[in-house]
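Why does residue order matter? Because the sequence determines the fold. Keep that principle in mind as you read this record.
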Amino acid sequence: MWKYLIPLLLISTPALADPISAIVAFTATVAKFGITKIIQAQAFAYFAGFYALSEIGKALGPDIPKGIDVPTRGYDVAGVSPAAPHAIVYGEAKVGGVIVFKDTTDNDKFLHIVVAIAGHEINDVTKVFFDADELGFLQTKTEGLNEVQTPEQYQGKADVSRRLGTTTQLAHSELVAQSTNWTGAHRLQGIAYLYVRLEFDADAFPNGEPQISCVVQGKKVFNPATGTTAFSSNPALVLRDYLTSDYGLSCSADEIDDTTFIAAAAVCDETVSLLAGGTEKRYTVNGSFATDVAPEVVINDIVRSMAGSLWYAQGKFRVKAGAFTAPVLAMTEDDNRSNLQIKTRHSRNEGFNAVTGKYRGEETSHETTDFRKVVSTTFLQVDNNEESIADITLPFTATSTMAQRIAKIMLFRNREQLQLSGRFGVRAFKVQVGDIITYTNAHLGFTAKTFEVTAWKFMPANDGTIEVEMFLSEISASVYDAYADESVFEKNNTTLADAFTVPAIGLTLAQDTRIINEHVVSLIRATVSATEPSRIDYVEVEFKLSTETTFNQLGVGELGIFEAIDLQNGLYDVRARAINTIGRKGGFTTAQINLQAQIDPPDNVATVGATINGQVTVLEWAAIASLDLSFYFIRHSIDTSGASFANATTSFEKVPRPATSVSVPARAGTYMIQSFDKVGIPSTGFASAVVLPAQLTQFGTTLTATEHSAGFTGTKSGCQVVSGNLRITNTASAPSTATYTFANDIDTGAVRQVYATGFVGNNRFDSSLAQWDDLTGNIDSLAGLWDSLTANPQFADTDVVFFIGVTQDNPSGSPTWSDYQQFKAGQFSGRAFRFKVELKSTSVGVTPSVDELFAQVEYN
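Structure:
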């Protein structure tokens, strides 16, 4: 049976976390004079953005008990303890709990377990686990037990119900009815718990009692913006709740500056776009901890989860979430009332160029996991390629994207190293800790440079007036931009020229052609110049097609000419930057060039022959002599005389060199072949071969489905009939396509092997040259018939593609058709056949203009 089990009644007692009811006398004194001081985390003394409670902060705020310095973490799985601290759950987290009761009934057949999961009311329990198995339930009951439905091994052997921990909840009636050791007096008011009943079964529980855990939507918190209390994972609202709770600091509402908490909550609820797509809230809190964790540890972790700051001033706690706020005051050197003390950089052991750390949440199966290291190559180079890592723990952060965002803010903020302190005039009364100001000082090279106020206090002046002593730390909006240019943090201290300034460079582009190894190649010539070449050590030049995302290196070297050789035609982006004599990299200068190589077209194909071999036509031609030949392009027209390249359809897109033959399905008409060189330039003419109908295999039966200018009554999608011809409706952009499905199919009356062929009567139509006044030259010299005088015989920007579908069934009944497949001609097996075509254009204003479509099915 349940081994070693004896009935237990374990009452969980809270850890010592006495409410703070008084402020030290010194606090009252400094508050009277309006002294404000930032409370900085010891672990991040130089990271002004993650402020928590430290020794200096406690001199100005309520005494915060140390407690036991344990990790900010609750219970992972349920376990027995005679006197365990309460667990506190904020947001959504997977937790265990303290087993406060065990009993067996019916001769040890049933095991009853009560697991206290939180020492407060919770919003809900959304999932329950036995070991690693997530349970599914047959139904949800208000009072009774919920029977486990999945996994199958627990069916009929386990029941679970939950109590949310209200202050008015009654004892669990089912447990009272089944155990004499649990009575109506055991209400566990204010404690959320699970009641689990297990029926002994060695197959269901081969390892004995399972480890119990659950996913909990934690405590409901007060929102001062709405005046309501509801479940929320907002860090600012959670922090307010902890400060005012008896297991936290027991602050009164008068000790909370709700204006700052409302503003911080709004920042936390903002959505941010993710690089992989989608969005998430800027900051959330999702986790649990026990009440024996030191309050300063809990507060520090909550504040860090919103990349924020917390301070105590004029008798109130104030907070700011990690986001840039607009400057509230523009100050200049005229506001100075004393000399300034300036700290330009951190010491080497206080700075870092990479951040690692841990987080936990649903995407990690609620296990503590390392997020991907955030490292800056820019900062690494500044630090002589010596990696210096800061390691942080984010126990309340549930996603890797949020953890990395916080880590990057920490990294960027650490590089904002300039700090000022001094006395200023009464205009500084307008600001408080956490505000952003601009400061202009020509002697220091500051032009509206942004600083954050990290501390200020009143100071008496020698003339009896009051001055304000302020401590300022540089800040910029880029700190909170995950995609910021990292170089700005190293060069934004001053506008004065210094060693970190890199001279601007000039970049001019030109195109050329060159013969290399008997091949004509195109190249871009980039000329890099500078007005201050003496301050430049070398330059880097990169290029890419404008449609690509990644630049390729063109060269590294002295000022001068760089060449990118053997390029295809297209629009190119070229950029260059200078590196000065101490290794500082300047910004990129970018230019564009549209490379259109001016080279001769390849030779025309001289002749092409067509040999019929059953159902296959073999086209053969003599290779052309052009060394830069790339491929051959083949078109087909149904006309056996006077065929036009522009009015044909594509048979083969590319027949690569050195091939001089290709096999195509046998069908009558004219095949035309054209050559293309390596930069995509076609030959000026084409060769053709004619296949007459009499040369093809003759069949006893020929069935035809014809669509023509009488109306094209089939189904149209994206096309219409104009002047009796089928055309794409909208050619305002390219490429454009449309489909047309034949009105009738072909029924052969029985399943048989057939030879099917698709034929297209096509004319290229260019709407830009459709007016009589647009025609140029002599009419006698224009190609094509009267209705297509503007057709250029070398155009190949239209196409019509045939598709066939097959059924083995009677088409007049309820046939099952195959998917459409592209074809030109070929053998197919079936009873009935249906057809459609796709009209294509790759030019704006141009469309195929089809006067006839017919499909032919032949068999013996």
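The chain is about 10% helix and 40% strand.
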